[in-house]
Design brief:
The chain is an alpha/beta fold and 311 residues long. The chain contains twelve helices and 14 strands. The strands form four sheets. The chain has a five-stranded parallel sheet. The protein starts with 9 loop residues before the first strand and ends with a helix.
C-alpha cells in the first residue's frame, strides 16, 4: 500500500516515495499507466483473471469493479487501516510491498500485478514474475481524490469492466450528493481531522489530500488552513491545534494506546478549546492514502458522527 506504515522509506513528516513522477497531467497519467500494460479494448473474457495487488488503494478499486484479488501485499494490515470491505479469506498475503515474496507470487501464477511508482525499487523483480501495471494516485502536484476517479476508469478499461467503473463512479457521486445534502441541514462547525502520532504530535489533514477533498465534496469546512505535504497532512505538536478555537476535533483510529491517557494529564491539552468544551470525536480508521471507497467511508463516518452530536 502507499505509505500506511512507518518504514525506512518514511520520514517523521510522512512517506518519501523514491521515484514518483512529478507534474503529470491527467492525460499523461492515463497514457503512462496504460503504456505499462498496453492492450487497449480488452473484453471481459480477455481480461486478467488472477491479479496480485501491491497497494491498498488499487485493491479498493478492484473491489469496486467486482474484480477478484488473488494476492495482496501486507494483507494483515488491511483490517487495521482499511477495514472495509472485509477481505475474502482466499486472498493470499504476498509479503511487504517493499519486500514482496516473489516465490509466493510466482506460485499464484498471476496474469497481472498492480503496483505504484512508490514501489519502483521492486518493479523489475515484479516484472520478471508477471505483466505489471503501474498506477499512481499520490504524487506531488496531483489531487488524489480526482486521481482515484481516473484510476477507477483506467482499471475498468484495462480489466474489461468500463461499464462497471462508470456505474460505480455514478453511484459514488450520488452518495456524495446525498451526504452533502444532509450536511447542509446541519451547518456544523469547522473540523480538525487528525491521526495521533504519539502523545505530543498529530498528523492534521488538509492541502490537496484525500480528507480535504472529502470535506470539500460534502460541504464541510476544514479548520486547518496550514500547509500540507502532497500526501495531504502536516505533522504538528498538539499545542498548535489551539489555533482553531471553534473547531471540532475528529481523531481517526488507530490511536497509540498511551496517547490519550498521557494527554489527559497535560494542562495544555485540557485547556484546548475542543477538549474543554467537549467537541472531540473519535472515529474508526479510514485509509488516509486510499481511493474512492475510502473517500466514501470517510464521508459516511463524518456525516453520521456530526448528526449524532447535533441531536
Amino acid at each position: 500500500m502507499e505509505a500506511v506504515r512507518r518504514s525506512d522509506a518514511e520520514t517523521p513528516d510522512g512517506p518519501c516515495p523514491r521515484q514518483l513522477f512529478r507534474g503529470w497531467t491527467r492525460r499523461a497519467f492515463l497514457a503512462g499507466a496504460a503504456a505499462t500494460f498496453a492492450r487497449p479494448g480488452r473484453s471481459a473474457a480477455e481480461a486478467p483473471a488472477r491479479i496480485v495487488s501491491m497497494d491498498y488503494a488499487l485493491t479498493e478499486i478492484l473491489f469496486s469493479l467486482d474484480v477478484p484479488v488473488a494476492g495482496l501485499a501486507e494483507r494483515e494490515g488491511w483490517q487495521e487501516w482499511v477495514v472495509e470491505p472485509a477481505l475474502p479469506a482466499e486472498i493470499v498475503d504476498v509479503g511487504l510491498p517493499q519486500a514482496p515474496n516473489l516465490e509466493l507470487i510466482s506460485e499464484l501464477r498471476p496474469d497481472l500485478i498492480l503496483t505504484t511508482p512508490w514501489l519502483d525499487p521492486v518493479l523489475s523483480s515484479l516484472q520478471r514474475v508477471a505483466p505489471t501495471l503501474r498506477v499512481s494516485i499520490y504524487e506531488e502536484g496531483a489531487t488524489p481524490f480526482a486521481r482515484s476517479y481516473d484510476a477507477t476508469r483506467l482499471l475498468g478499461e484495462r480489466l474489461g469492466r468500463p461499464d462497471r467503473a462508470a456505474r460505480f463512479i455514478a453511484e459514488a457521486d450520488r452518495e456524495f450528493d446525498a451526504i452533502a445534502a444532509r450536511m447542509r441541514r446541519l451547518a456544523p462547525p469547522p473540523l480538525l481531522l487528525v491521526n495521533f502520532v504519539d502523545a505530543r504530535h498529530v498528523r492534521v489533514y488538509g492541502g490537496d489530500g484525500l480528507y480535504q477533498s472529502v470535506l470539500d465534496r460534502i460541504g464541510l469546512k476544514n479548520a486547518f488552513q496550514g500547509e500540507a505535504n502532497y500526501w495531504g497532512f502536516a505533522t504538528v505538536g498538539v499545542e498548535n491545534l489551539a489555533a482553531s478555537p471553534g473547531a471540532r476535533l475528529i481523531a481517526f483510529e488507530p490511536i497509540p494506546p498511551d496517547a490519550l491517557p498521557t494527554l489527559a494529564r497535560s494542562p495544555i491539552w485540557r485547556e484546548l478549546p475542543f477538549v474543554r468544551d467537549g467537541r472531540m470525536s473519535t472515529l474508526p480508521p479510514v485509509l488516509t492514502f486510499g481511493a474512492m471507497l475510502s473517500s466514501l467511508r470517510c464521508a459516511r463516518l463524518l456525516a453520521d458522527e456530526l448528526e449524532r452530536v447535533a441531536t
